[in-house]
Amino acid sequence: MDSSKNAYTLVLRAKSLNSFTISCKTECCRFVGETSFRKQKLPSVALHKEACFPPILFAIFLFDFEDTLEEGVQVSIFADDIFIYCSHNSPDHIVKKLRRTLNNVYQWCKYWRLNISPEKCAIADLSRRMPSHPDISYAGVPLPWKTEIKYLGFIFSKTNQNNINIKYLRTKARRKINALKSIAYKTYGPRTKDLISIVNNSICSLFFYNCSTINKWSATHLNICDVIQTTALRAAMGLPIWTPNIILLKLAAQETLSRKIKRLATQSFLKHIAYGAHSPLYRNDEALALCQALDELPNDEDNLRLLTDSLSVLQALANLSIKSNKIILRLAAKIATREKFHQNIVLLWTPGHAGIKWNEKADNLARRVSESDPNI
């Protein structure tokens, strides 16, 4: 849900920019660039390119990537997808900003030994002005222009993107419903409970992913979502088409899809407010780093002082309970184990990053390791 929450934030931010443009009645040009990056081919002892990125290394990349952005240019990163976007009244200003940003990204990738394929990149103009296609290139290769662009399963377009997205999701759901029918009508008779689980986890989950955005759709679009759900449940339970929806949902022990989308969107919004400025991704990475430090430090030390710039980890340790995050509980257990050996452990918070001696030292060590050993 962390990565999807970033996508929701991205979409809501784009919508707020659009509404701001309408209220001010100014011509706003917005360019969006989508890239897809992957690690270069490494020796056989290195991680496979399809393997999971180490969370701590990925967090380091995220912190370092922000330095490549020009002022006014924003980015969203999920796995191996990069979404760069910029909004301004002047198209020429946007073109200059994006060219400088892409050049900085190219230099950043060379430094970290990564590679972005220009063939998988695209750029789109999402404003309502007359289309113009200035030359914007990456690594000397001009990027192709598109009328719409898809990121994390959501299609961005200058036209009515709600209709485009509902058509895309409905087509994808119908293909899965047809596959479900081929399974449900077999003679060996699969269990209805398993088929309902397939409906929830494979078909209805298409709408759960972007629930914070789909929640803003009109009642007509939400009714289309309910029709897809009832069609899938009839195929799973083998009930005729004239079965009332209220009875169908009661037998399947399900709630309407539109109501569940609104409930999940509300939960995501409340969770986002509860976290505030603290990101669970960075908190877990910092907690894992502290756990690894406690594992590698010798047990014969009397006093240990650990410096961290994650205030959320210290707050979680100060408010420890049985419902705390598993990684926080693991960190607390390691600290308690060392205290049994009469070790005094002190956790110090170092605010900020730049200008802090120990943070700068840790950053330099991370850069030195990345240059010396590509197999980390």
From TrEMBL:
A single Gene Ontology CC annotation of this entry is: DNA polymerase complex
Q: Which PANTHER family does UniProt cross-reference here?
A: REVERSE TRANSCRIPTASE DOMAIN-CONTAINING PROTEIN
Any Pfam family:
RVT_1
Official protein name in the record: RNase H type-1 domain-containing protein
| Signal sequence annotation | none
- What's an example Gene Ontology biological process for this entry? DNA biosynthetic process
Which stretches make up the Reverse transcriptase domain? 1-156
